[in-house]
């Protein structure tokens, strides 16, 4: 218990955006333990003011390069809510298909490129090209599949084009959808091999439990990736649902003096969003093929080890493929036509939510009678996870000290913990109070 | 001689242009890394370098004075600096706030005066350091990026289009957005993207900035007369990705 550690990780690698880890331990006493966010502020909520409703999602998409599909969808859904627009079932299905593509794309990247190096003892994916060529080639093949899948529906995967208020500005042909169906089926062996890799690495996933509140979209029909009410799940299994319009009752953003970002909390000290929160909330409606994989990976709800978020992502990529095959069958059966965009029926305020790879995402806007945006608010999942990461740190560091871990081991354990949340820090719509401790 | 060393650096941006670099697929990506050594890429690797770099791909805009020293150290170490993506090339979408004077108060309220929220106008990185070439676009056209890198590997200067998006739109045989009753900025926007937006049913927002010497008054007139915009909206339309370009042309 005589551990002394000075951990200072500036600009943590293999995460999106800029975050720091600061831990001071002297003779086994934890003096400081912080997760900090020094990302440059970007002011999107201010920039949407004065813009026409057709432009708003094209601006807010630029909040994040990895989840630009999700930002586009949440933004367009909020605008449609504000403008009294209900889109067709065809638009809804195409958007769901695009949502699955993004989830698959981001999770494949995170599992294989950002996390796998830790579990295989390498500093990045580049040395793995020599040592684990098959793992890298498969990851790149799956990544390409995701890119082609999302591009078919959205036009491209970084800042998609076709999703606009009122529907879809462009639609794929049935022939293209059939080709995508074949591509997804052909990818099943790669998918199974990727899951097997995660299964082989599962024993290396650190053991650490901290029960917390899990928040995700939820509905009675499916896994809730694209749409649903907000659901809170407590460690004792009790749940509560809230309409999306009441999101502020759940997020309760607040500022803490020692913090690096606006924090959120609901019923407990902090809550988690992301794949693990979705898995815990929506396990009953997980696709049977994905359930099988969860069982083979030894995962059950309520899973309270945050490091298992990466494993939950592996379960979700299976779900994304099988859910999409079902959507493709429906679209191929009904045929696909370019439909006129649904026009606004009113101008007011509205909120929209969707699940992005890192968790639940909220957008809200108000429009004047000319369709010009007068205010905007975005609450992104990483923002909601910062508080939970901080509480994880505060439980984990003393445990590591008690286990007599070296400074290097502690540093890696903390880096891996942050990485397991797959944070997406550039989504910094309103971070506050960054504090540097030297 | 070893392989040329390539490094990625990020400033104020969404990092989507770095993500585009992971979208080449297995064959192209594995081929590319036979020809270059990626020595630093924070979003994807833990390795870092303090050695000289052959090509630095710098993403994001210069929006904080505090970032100047880091930009200068990249410039000192890099033989070639490429502004990678529109945020680095022109300030990009971040420059939209340059035309608002209350953006800090709007987003941060009473905390707006705190020093860490320092944010000046979003500028291209060329406001801090010399830039050799720019890969335009939001996001970059990943195939154009390959062209730029290949040209440099062969000791040639990359060729960046300086004609409008309309050229590529016609070659793609897309229906003009004006013919569909919509609006568009393709006639003054820099090409090189392949005109994907009109092909997917949405207007060109000039995310690669303007061609040199754009006829901005004509753009505004067309937006008013053919697309029915108010004069105010016509003027503000071009601020989305070209706020700094407009300042340079006025």
Describe the structure.
Chain A is α+β, with helices and mostly antiparallel strands and 438 residues long. Chain A has 14 helices and 12 strands. Chain A has helices at residues 44-47, 53-60, 68-82, 89-119, 125-131, 133-154, 174-186, 188-201, 247-251, 275-282, 288-296, 309-334, 381-402, 407-420; strands at residues 5-9, 20-26, 29-36, 163-164, 167-168, 213-218, 229-233, 239-242, 271-272, 349-356, 359-367, 373-379. In chain A, a hairpin with a 2-residue loop joins strand 10 (349-356) and strand 11. The radius of gyration of chain A is 21 Å and the shape is globular. By secondary structure, chain B is of the alpha/beta class. Chain B is 35% helix and 11% strand. Chain B has helices spanning 16-20, 26-35, 68-77, 86-90, 103-108, 142-153, 165-172, 196-199, 216-225, 231-237, 239-249; strands spanning 5-10, 37-41, 53-59, 78-84, 133-135. Chain B has a 5-stranded parallel sheet. In chain B, strand 3 (53-59), helix 3 (68-77) and strand 4 form a beta-alpha-beta unit. The longest helix of chain B is centred in the middle third of the chain and has 12 residues, at 142-153. Chain B is globular. The N and C termini of chain B lie far apart (48 Å). The model of chain B has no long low-confidence stretch (mean pLDDT 89). The interface between A and B is large, with 62 and 59 residues.
Short précis:
The complex is a heterodimer of chains A (438) and B (250). Chain A has 438 residues and is α+β, with helices and mostly antiparallel strands.
Summarize the topology.
The complex is a heterodimer of chains A (438) and B (250).
Chain A: E1 5-9, E2 20-26, E3 29-36, H1 44-47, H2 53-60, H3 68-82, H4 89-119, H5 125-131, H6 133-154, E4 163-164, E5 167-168, H7 174-186, H8 188-201, E6 213-218, E7 229-233, E8 239-242, H9 247-251, E9 271-272, H10 275-282, H11 288-296, H12 309-334, E10 349-356, E11 359-367, E12 373-379, H13 381-402, H14 407-420
Parallel strand pairs in A: 6-9
Antiparallel strand pairs in A: 1-2, 2-3, 4-5, 6-7, 7-8, 10-11, 11-12
Chain B: E1 5-10, H1 16-20, H2 26-35, E2 37-41, E3 53-59, H3 68-77, E4 78-84, H4 86-90, H5 103-108, E5 133-135, H6 142-153, H7 165-172, H8 196-199, H9 216-225, H10 231-237, H11 239-249
Parallel strand pairs in B: 1-2, 1-3, 3-4, 4-5
